[in-house]
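so my prof wants the structure for this chain in the C-alpha cells format not the other one, which i didnt know existed until like an hour ago. anyway here's the sequence
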Amino acid sequence: MPLFNDVSTDLDDVPQFVYARQLPANRGRDLSPVALRAMADYILERDARREGKSIVGDKSPNVLLNGQAVREMHTFYPDARLIYIVRDGRDTLVSHRFQNFISASHNLPASDLALRDSFAKDPAPFMSGERSIFTRKAIWQMAEGWVKNVTETDQIGRELYDSRYHVLKYEDLLKSPYATIAGVWQFLGADPAGLEQEVAREMQRNPDADYQRKAAGDLVKNLERGKRGSWRELFTQRDKEIFKEIAGEALVAWGYEKDLEW
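here's what i got, hopefully its the right format
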C-alpha cells in the first residue's frame, strides 16, 4: 500500500474520492447505514493501525453514478472530507476506452471489438488520428457521461460537504505534484513532514501501468499510461467535433480550453 505520510492513497489517473474519518457514525433511523459504516470503519481503522497512520482514506474511480456517488457517500460518511480529482475529459475518454478494451471486452458490442482488434493488429493509423478508437455512438455517450459526471459531482460535493470538499485537477498532480499534494495535506490537517521526498518517490512508480501491460500485452505497448494530452494523438477530426459539441463548454468551464477553437 503506497503511503504519503498520513494518508493511504496513490497517484492514479482516474477521478477519485478520498475521505477522512472524524466523528462517530450517524444515528439515522435506518440501521443499514450505521451497520455498513461500522464495518467500513473496522476495515479502514485496522489498516490505519497496521500502517501507524492517524488519517485513513479510500478511493473510488466511479464514473457511472455521477452525483449519486457523492450522495451515497454522504449517507454513510456525512462527517468525511471529500476530494474530487478531475481530468481533461478528452484524456479521460481515451483512458476509459482502453480500460474497456483490456478489462471489459466481454461487454463490448461487435463494432467496438472490431476496433479493438484492428488497433491491436495495426495501431499506426489510430495513433496518427487517421482512424478512431471510438464508434460515433461510443464517443457521443462517453462525452455526455463525462460532462454529467464532473458537473453533478462538483455541484453536489460543494452542496453536501461545503468546506470539507476539495477539488483538484489530475494535470496539476503531474505538473506540480508536491504543491498539489501539499494542498491536500493542508485540507486534511495532516503533518507534511517528509512529504516532498515521499511524493518524489511515488512519482517514479506506476503500478497500474505495469498491470495494464501485463494484462493487455501488445495492445497498449505504444501508450504511456497517465500521459497528459494523449487525445491529441488519438482523436480524429470527427472525434474532436463530437466532443466539442457535447462537452466543449465544460472544458472551458474547467479551464482546459479558453474557447472552442481547438
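also thought this was worth mentioning. Residues 1-16 have pLDDT under 50 and may be disordered.
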